[in-house]
Amino acid sequence: MKSASYMRLLDSISSSGLICRCCGNKVYSLSGANESVCNFCEAYVSSRDKDVVHGNRDIENNLGLMQSSAASGRWVDGAAAADSLAATNDPCFLYGASSFYRFFSDHTYYGVDYNLGGFMYSNAEKRSDEVQRNKYNAVALISKSKEFLFKSLKIINASPNPEDHLLFIKFMANVKLNRLDHAQKTLAEIGGRQNMDMVKFYANTVWMVNGGKKLSDKYIDEGVTYGLSNILYYLAISAAKHGDLDGAINMLDQLAPRSNMPAALYAGIRLRDIRNASSI
Q1: Is 67 exposed, middle or buried (0-12, 13-18, 19+ CB in 10 A)?
Q2: Which of 109, 169, 170, 204 is least enclosed, having the fewest CB within 10 Å?
Q3: Hey, is 44 helix, strand or coil?
Q4: pLDDT tens for residues 18-66?
């Protein structure tokens, strides 16, 4: 892996001007482009998405509140907005809200204080699955994330010929739910579509890395040509799976704040835990 050259790419990440219609995230990329993949929820994003986001005041406000609460770490403040978006039964908003709750869960789970004394009851409440103790506990939040993913899939599957961006959501939702047989079938559907080169590349990257394959320099370079800053996330995950924990953590630690990518932040935390455990 050409570590030094890929680390230098981090300085090339900038706002693309694109905004995700699923979660309201302002997309960061390696180059200016008319299409990309969201750094927050990993939905397909095009220049047309702005029309959806700004076309309805309630939608715009809820997407904005969801993102601002995530950015500030005040996740509870965005929960009602995420629920309102999900209530529209739009598969895109359901998918975006599911990502909000996934990272809300991660934030809650990893937001523990090991300096507390005694049994550390407040930490136990964050990780408890007893709703009466804390309805925003990590288990309840990830369950809600999965619920929204399944609802999104149900709506998409009811369409005999879903649009390209919905087919990609179908693939990503199945991957996130670990429904790999369904994901593989959807990947084949994506491969049969026309004019989806960037989406095909990204979907195959996700599939390869989740399957444990190591990404070659040539493959990473192709992702760079599409301007996909998320390719650096998958480079890091691939490196970690093949033993380079230090390199992966270094990449993720620098990628997360530059790209507003919660997946990179929490992957870095998990990998650091693995490294610490293996050093005992």
Answers
A1: buried
A2: 204
A3: strand
A4: 999 999 999 999 987 789 999 999 999 999 999 999 999 999 999 999 9
As a dihedral over the C-alpha atoms of residue 254, residue 106, residue 88, residue 186, rounded to 10 degrees, the angle is: 70
DSSP conformation class of 11: G
Q: If we measure between CA atoms, which residue out of 199, 145, 197, 211 comes closest to residue 167?
A: 199
Is the distance from CB of 139 to CB of 125 less than 8 angstroms? Answer: no
Q: Given the structure tokens 């990502």, which residue do they identify? A: 99
> Which has the higher per-residue pLDDT, 279 or 251?
251
- Tokens (6 digits) for 72: 């500030």
The DSSP call for residue 179 is -
- The owner of tokens 């905004």 is 19
Please state the pTM of the whole predicted model. 0.91
Amino acid at 41: C
Q: How far is 126 from 186, CA to CA, in rounded Å?
A: 35
CA–CA dist 94, 170 (Å, integer): 12
Handedness of CA 54, 55, 60, 61 (dihedral sign): positive
19, containing H or E segment: strand 14-19
Torsion sign (Cα): 37, 95, 93, 84: negative
User: Please, which residues have CB within 8 angstroms of residue 72's CB and are 6 or more apart in sequence?
Assistant: none
Quick one: how far is CA 139 from the chain centroid? Answer: 18
